[in-house]
Design a protein that fits this description.
The chain is mostly helical. It has helices spanning 19-32, 44-47, 54-71, 88-97, 102-106, 109-115, 124-127, 129-138, 152-168, 170-175, 224-233, 252-264, 269-276, 281-308, 310-339, and strands at 7-11, 38-42, 79-82, 144-146, 187-189. The protein contains 15 helices and five strands. Helix 4 crosses helix 15 (310-339). The structure holds adenosine-5'-tetraphosphate (AQP). The site of adenosine-5'-tetraphosphate has 19 residues, from helix 1. Adenosine-5'-tetraphosphate (AQP) is lined by residues 11-12, 14, 20-21, 24-25, 147-148, 150-151, 195-197, 206-210.
C-alpha cells in the first residue's frame, strides 16, 4: 500500500536549544516545507520523562515554538503545536506499549545513557519514551522524519512497532478496508554535514542541552559576543586544517568545526576544506564566528521578540493542535476499530 508523503518531527522543550538542534533538525524542518506537508511538534510529554519545573516547561514550550517560527517555519501553511494538546499521542502510545517488546526497549542506548547507573530510579516514562515517539509519528501516519543521528535507533524502533502492528492485526486491518498495512514504515531523514554536532569542549560528546558547561554549546539565544567567545575557546589541535576529508578522520574537534561551517554555509565539508585547507585555526575560527553570527544572530533576536508575545505563541499552538487533532483523531478511531475497542460513535 502506498501512503501520502507526510513529514513529522518534534523537539523537546527542555531548555538551552542549541546549534545541534538547529543544524541537525530545525534547518531540515524549514527546507522540507517546500516539498512536503509538515507537522512540527513541541514534545512536552517527552520532556517530563525527566523532571521539569512546571513554570520552566511552559516557558521552554513557548521558546521552542518561537525558535521554529524565527527559523522560518510557517505555522499557517504547515502545522506547529505542542504534543499534550492532542490526546491521540497518549492513546496510541498505550496501544504501542502493548505492541513493543521489553527486549526491544532494553536495547535503547538513549535510555541507558539518560538513566545512567541509577536505573531503578528512572521514570517508567523514560523507559517507554520510544513507544510515545512511534505514536507521535504514526498518529498522523507520517512517512518521513527529519532527525539528528542520535534519534536513528528510536526511528528504527518506530518502524518495528509499525511493522508488528500491521502483522499482528493484519486480518482486522483488511476487514476494515485498509488494505495490507495500516501504518507506513516511517523513514528517517538524516543528511548533510551536521547530523551529529559535537560539544565545543570535547569532540567525542554530542552537543547537548543538559551539559553543565555553557561553553560546550552555542545556544540559539546567544548574542554575537557569546557566539564569538565560545567559538574562539572551542577545543582544537595544534595542526593546520587538512586539505581533504581523510585528514579530518583522526581529528574529531576539527571535523566538528568544519561540519558546522559547512552546514551553516550550505556546503559540503570538502568545499570548506578546499577554501581553508592549510589554514591555522585562528583564521578559520574568525571566519566561522562571522558566519555563525550572520546566520544565528537574526534568528536569536527574532526568537527573543516572539517569545514575549504569549498570546500570539499560544494561538499558534492552539490553531496547530486543532488541525493536528483533525488528522490524528480519525486515525486513532481506526486503530480502536482495528484493535477491537468498542467506541462511542
Ligand atoms: N548534537 C546534535 N547534533 C545534531 N542533531 C541533534 N539533535 C539533538 N542534539 C543534536 C536533534 O535535535 C532534535 C531535537 O532534539 P530533542 O529536543 O528531542 O533532544 P536533545 O537535544 O537530544 O535534548 P535532550 O534529550 O533534552 O537533552 P540532552 O541532549 O542534553 O540529553 C532531534 O532530531 C535530535 O536528533
Amino acid at each position: 500500500m502506498s501512503f501520502k508523503q507526510l513529514v513529522f518531527s518534534g523537539v523537546q522543550p527542555t531548555g538551552n536549544l542549541h546549534l545541534g538542534n538547529y543544524l541537525g533538525a530545525i534547518t531540515k524542518f524549514v527546507a522540507l516545507q517546500e516539498t512536503h506537508d509538515c507537522i512540527y511538534c513541541v514534545v512536552d510529554m517527552h520532556a517530563i520523562t525527566v523532571w521539569q519545573d512546571p513554570a520552566e516547561l511552559t516557558r521552554n514550550t513557548r521558546e521552542v515554538t518561537a525558535a521554529f517560527i524565527a527559523a522560518g517555519i510557517d505555522p499557517k501553511k504547515h502545522i506547529v503545536f505542542n504534543q499534550s494538546q492532542v490526546t491521540a499521542h497518549a492513546e496510541l502510545a498505550w496501544v504501542f506499549n502493548c505492541v513493543a517488546r521489553i527486549g526491544w526497549l532494553n536495547r535503547m542506548t538513549q535510555f541507558k545513557e539518560k538513566a545512567g547507573k541509577d536505573r531503578e530510579n528512572a521514570s517508567v516514562g523514560l523507559y517507554v519514551y520510544p513507544s510515545l515517539m512511534a505514536a507521535d509519528i504514526l498518529a498522523y501516519r507520517a512517512t518521513h522524519v527529519p532527525v539528528g543521528e542520535d534519534q536513528k535507533q528510536h526511528l528504527e524502533l518506530s518502524r518495528d512497532i509499525a511493522q508488528k502492528f500491521n502483522n499482528d492485526f493484519g486480518d482486522a486491518i483488511r476487514a476494515h478496508g485498509f488494505g495490507d498495512a495500516f501504518f507506513p514504515l516511517p523513514e528517517p531523514i538524516i543528511q548533510g554535514p551536521a547530523t551529529r554536532v559535537m560539544s565545543l569542549r570535547d569532540g567525542s560528546k554530542k552537543m547537548s542541552k543538559s551539559e553543565p558547561s555553557d561553553y560546550s554549546r552555542i545556544n540559539l539565544t546567544d548574542d554575537a559576543d557569546a557566539i564569538a567567545q565560545k567559538i574562539r575557546k572551542a577545543k582544537t589541535d595544534p595542526e593546520p586544517l587538512p586539505s581533504d576529508l581523510k585528514g579530518l578522520e583522526p581529528r574529531p574537534e576539527a571535523d566538528n568545526l568544519v561540519g558546522i561551517f559547512a552546514a551553516l554555509d550550505n556546503k559540503t565539508k570538502a568545499d570548506v576544506l578546499r577554501d581553508f585547507g592549510g589554514a591555522q585555526f585562528s583564521g578559520f575560527k574568525s571566519a566561522l564566528v562571522d558566519l555563525a553570527v550572520a546566520k544565528l544572530g537574526p534568528i536569536g533576536a527574532e526568537m527573543k521578540k516572539l517569545v514575549q508575545d504569549h498570546a500570539y505563541i499560544d494561538s499558534v499552538l492552539a490553531d496547530g493542535a486543532q488541525r493536528a487533532a483533525a488528522i490524528a483523531e480519525p486515525n486513532m478511531n481506526a486503530v480502536k476499530d482495528i484493535v477491537g475497542f468498542v467506541r462511542r460513535k
